[in-house]
Amino acid sequence: MIFYFMVSVDQVLSTLATVIDPDLKKDIVSMGMIKDIEINGNDLKFTLELTTPACPFNDEIEQDVRNAISKIKEISKFDLKVTAKVMEGRSLSMDEMLPTVKNIIGVASGKGGVGKTTVSVNLALALAQTGAKVGLLDADIYGPSVPLMLGMGKSAMEVDNNKLQPAESHGLKVVSFGFFAEQSHQAAIYRGPIISGILKQFLVDTNWSDLDYLIVDLPPGTGDIPLTLAQTIPITGIVVVTTPQDVASNIAVKAFGMFQKLNIPILGVIENMSYFRCPNCATDHYIFGKEGAKRMSETHNLPFLGAIPLNPGIMEGSDSGRPVLVTDPNSTMSQAFMVVAKNVAARCSVLASHLSDEMKAEVVTQK
Length: 367
Prior knowledge:
Layout: H1 9-16, E1 34-40, E2 43-50, H2 58-70, E3 77-84, E4 104-108, H3 116-129, E5 134-138, H4 146-150, E6 158-160, E7 163-165, E8 167-169, E9 172-176, H5 192-204, E10 213-217, H6 224-232, E11 237-242, H7 246-261, E12 266-271, E13 276-277, E14 284-285, H8 292-299, E15 304-307, H9 312-320, H10 324-327, H11 332-366
Parallel strand pairs: 2-3, 4-10, 4-11, 5-9, 5-10, 11-12, 12-15
Antiparallel strand pairs: 1-2, 6-7, 8-9, 13-14
């Protein structure tokens, strides 16, 4: 007589509960990442819904799931579908203005000249290339350069039903003061309240639609624009861009210090122009010093999100409106931006998980 042991849903879930997300430090079952379990005899099928398509551990989690299921000897056929749904890294219930934007990430710097806008553009492109829905807001009203870096015309934005319609480029929804023709050859001379009003309009009077990430390229320093962003809407967190120089890192400290005083999370630090790799000898040359941003992040207990090399291709692409992520996605430069983007996305997921735990705890307390 032959006995057939049927696989149960509880058996599958208890096995999968041994798989831990490396970033969130939680098992994938309690995180709700296992969907649509189907068992037909000894055939198993389900969906693994990851927290972001840009997670640096997606392949590792998928392999851990397959290894765990392989331990259930009764399973004869296993069909795994892998998808991703970006978690909400900010309190959407508290934001009536942008309820369809899951994460708002400000890109800041303590000083100009560190390549913050170049990082913002390529960070947004890298996130979009993973499959996420991404918007890019050029909040540098005095010196908007995002349209130039993306090779976009001045009249790319339109107005429909009193709402700004973002321009689109390489899968990004883009809003910038640089699109307005009357400002193309003139310096923007405005006082703080007017600048703040423009930013608010770009944020709340724009049809952003559903976005997983809205990248906001902030002007350097700690002036009106960063304050307006922090005080207008709930944001997920801030990314600080600096170079290896001690002087740049020391000034960057003031930037994240301001946001910390405003209780805005700091997602981490990016070191731009980190090193130059000689094309002839493949040796790395640290022109502006070595690991200054990394030391700063360690001193202030902030995550180090990655290093971007100094490369003529990045600068030439920015000047010509052909970003390196678009023209050469497999290059060393592009891969550096992709690493940074995945680390930023991972940090957003961690904060979203903490936010979810806080909301659950609040519900329990109220009961």
